[in-house]
Amino acid sequence: MMEPHLSLELRTSERWQEAPPLRICTVTSGKGGVGKSNIAANLGLTLARLGRQVLLIDADLGLANLDILLGLAPRYSIQDVLARRRTLAETLVRGPDGIEILPASSGIPELADLSPSEKVFLLNELDHYSENLDVVLIDTGAGISPNVLFFNMAALERIVVVNREPTSITDACALMKVLVTRHGARRFKLLANGLSTGAEAHKVFCTLLQVAERHLGEVSLDYLGWIPHDEAIPQAVLQQKALLDLFPKAKASKSFLDLAQKLWESPPPPDCYGNIQFFWRRLLRS
User: Fold this and answer.
1) What is the DSSP string of 111-167?
2) Of 22, 106, 161, 184, which sits most exposed with the smallest number of CB within 10 A?
């Protein structure tokens, strides 16, 4: 469990008692293997511990793994929702700290490219479930497949995960280029993962920023922070438990707390809307 004094301090802070805005963020990447799903799971759990109502969507629809990372055994998946066999509420799984998870399926090639009618249906189902939510985190697949682009443009904020590998930086730029040129996206948040020092992480950000300025034109690339290389992370994955539960004092656990606070305290600008949105009814009321 998280350290009691830290949990109490965060929960009683005045800034966490204010009425929260609805935050809808993708956790995405151009390249696989950069730790995207692990970040989505641990960031969601950290936000839940900070008093937020969190929905975590596994949007890597044909290669699900969020349930595996958290040691869950869901009976149903998003495939059952799309096939009208189960409602969204029946499909959601309750995870640690009250987080709600919409599981995906594994080995279902039909889900790799949702049809237009399936996309509309899914948006409407999620829209009707948004009333009591504070944060929606969408763990997309990697790359530039139609599903990855759809979920990135359906969200309000896009967190692009990279590591030190040149291919990770190149592929992240390729993903952003497609979102910019084909869909008009202009704002991205960058999160560096698995780095040894803050200076090294910032160097990765500067490299990507230079590439983006050279090839993407006028885009906003904000540095969200970094998660350090920490042997506690693969140990938690092997045990299928949340990092903060198993290793609350680990370097990475502290980094996730910092990340959650920074994300929440830096609300999205009013002009960040894309061409399709989750939860449009609640957003219009706001």
Assistant:
1) GGS--HHHHHHHHHHHHTT-TT-SEEEEEEEESS-HHHHHHHHHSSEEEEEE-S-HH
2) 184
